[in-house]
Write a structure and sequence with these properties.
By secondary structure, the protein is α+β, with helices and mostly antiparallel strands. 24% of the residues lie in helices and 34% in strands. Strands 1-2-3-7-6-5-4 form a 7-stranded mixed β-sheet, sandwiched between helices. Strands 11-10-9-8-12 form a 5-stranded antiparallel β-sheet. Helix 2 crosses helix 5. It binds biotinyl-5-AMP (BT5). The site of biotinyl-5-AMP (BT5) has 29 residues, from helix 1, strand 3, strand 6 and strand 7.
């Protein structure tokens, strides 16, 4: 069962750090905190985690199936999108690989959450950050895919525990599935399929049209040299 046992903390540096260090944790164990002082984003970035304004959750997975580790983050992103959509009635999108998107009334995408997958040996930790009750002033500035919160998009306050329960229940379902079973839903929600994008990783850059996400969770880019698979890097669109 995803979310059992659950370790609840008032504040910590990073729930992912706690989950990585929790050696005895069984598959499905969760760490949740009311605030983080050193919330982590991808590629060494920071995740703003003010008290009670968002959900800060890490899950410990000890998968038996050989699914590629990148796939767990994609499955988690999909579970979060499904849960938030059911709760709020808002349309929730995804940006490969790890952004959870809400939309302004005019349809512009806003980052309301993110997923950070990390591994220690065979243990996988999937960190989930969701902005719930922040005002615009409490959110960091982002030049593209500006930050928003569920409250800003839905005009109501959100109880962190209600969202936690909904997310865990959805993840219990989605994390038990094969990527191929749910890939179509990820692609349906995925921002920018058919658009030109630039993929950057370790100094190298590739320009192409986003064609979809493959059976290993890699993004497929149709470049001047043909169809390429890309993993673990940064994707930017020309919005
Ligand atoms: C992510 O990184 O989107 C992954 C975030 C994962 C956070 C969770 S919280 C629970 C668990 N424990 C942790 O320590 N982490 C996980 P990335 O795509 O790199 O986005 C980070 C970038 O987004 C930053 O460089 C900022 O520009 C911006 N940012 C920071 N805080 C944000 C927020 N609360 N909302 C939206 N954007 C934010």
């Amino acid at each position: 069962m995803i979310g059992e046992p659950i370790l609840r903390l008032e504040t910590t540096d990073s729930t992912n750090r706690v989950a990585l260090d929790w050696d005895e944790a069984p598959h499905g164990a969760a760490v949740v905190a009311r605030a983080q002082s050193g919330g982590r984003g991808r590629l060494g970035r920071h995740w703003e985690s003010p008290p009670d304004a968002g959900l800060y959750l890490s899950l410990i997975l000890r998968p038996e199936s050989p699914q590629n580790s990148a796939v767990w983050s994609l499955l988690a992103a999909l579970g979060v999108a499904r849960a938030l959509e059911k709760l709020s009635g808002l349309k929730i999108g995804l940006k490969w690989p790890n952004d959870v998107l809400g939309f302004d009334p005019d349809g512009a995408p806003r980052k309301i959450g993110g997923i950070l997958g990390e591994a220690k040996g065979s243990k996988i930790v999937v960190g989930i950050g969701i902005n719930l009750n922040q005002s615009l002033e409490e959110l960091p500035e982002r030049p593209i895919f500006p930050a928003s919160s569920l409250r800003l998009l839905s005009a109501c306050d959100w109880d962190v525990d209600v969202v936690l329960a909904a997310v865990l229940s959805e993840l219990d379902d989605v994390l038990g599935r094969n990527w191929d079973e749910v890939r179509a839903d990820f692609e349906r929600r995925c921002w920018g399929i058919g658009e030109v994008a630039r993929f950057e990783s370790e100094g190298a850059s590739l320009l192409g049209v986003v064609a979809g996400v493959d059976g290993d969770g890699a993004l497929m880019l149709r470049s001047a040299d043909g169809l390429k698979r890309v993993v673990a890097g940064e994707l930017s669109y020309f919005l």
